[in-house]
Amino acid sequence: MSAEASVGSHAASSAQSGVSQPVCQNTGGHQSQGLLGSKYVKLNVGGSLHYTTVQTLSKEDSLLRSICNGGTEVAIDAEGWVVLERCGRHFGLVLNFLRDGSVPLPEDHRELEEILKEAQYYQVQGLAQHCLNAMQKQKDVFETVCRIPMITSAKEEQKMISTCRKPVVKLQNNRGNNKYSYTSNSDDNLLKNIELFDKLVLRFNGRVLFVKDVLGDEICCWSFYGEGRKIAEVCCTSIVYATEKKQTKVEFPEARIFEETLNILIYENNRGSGPGGLHLMDSSLGAGHSEEEGGAVGGDRRVRRIHVRRHIMHDERGHGQQTVYKD
Q1: What HEC string does 103-131 produce?
Q2: For residues 142 and 311, what is the distance between their CA atoms, to the nearest angstrom?
Q3: Is the pTM higher than 0.85?
Q4: CA 245-248-253 angle, 5° bins
């Protein structure tokens, strides 16, 4: 007797109901107590055809083993195919897991969820746990990935900053917002500011919210927020005079930017609230910096605005003539 005939003579029929115990309509008109008398099984899973053995299907205590030993009735068509009313896209992976005990899983999260659903339907607990472990590993990886929000409006930016419980570091970077030409080192310094932003994101990820604004009015400006308020600002651009024309100069005050980032950490977990936090912030502002600081009142607390000090050189023209800023 052929494998097909064996399958046809030993299969039973019923209707499919539920995830754990599907019942199918019998299309062949034959019933039996299972497939244990057969060695090979032909499976039609949603139009996807598979040829395997009863031994493979019986490796785990699953719905497929129940089908083989007669615990669950199935439908068999006129050609001897056991018909399972499921999508057959991932059934080959289910069979490979039963054969080998393990199987490589796709990285796509949606496909993992689909395979998990199939494993749960067929009650293949080993495969289901394998999928859950892979999904948990993906979740752990995603939680450590740096996320930088994209700001589409000033209102959205203000809302995000005011409601954020973490310190915020924002870099405004808009090279096109300039009506003068740039000095020779400005492009390099602009790139250095952007690279420093990326380094700070990697170093303080999880402790500080980093925002990059490429549509603002500033060419290159750092802003530091704590408890929803601006605490400090470092402006890296200035207008200088070269011969008879104005030029825009971009600086890279790396040390001061890094210092302000460290200062803003006192607002982590609301540690900057109260007079103690303010005293700590004030004490961190020591003398000897090469920047010029200007204070601006923000509510009842001032905002430190730092502009890079320029080296000034007088030209050889008469007294009172235009001052030249040396690049």
Answers
A1: CCCCCCHHHHHHHHHHHHHCCCHHHHHHH
A2: 47
A3: no
A4: 145
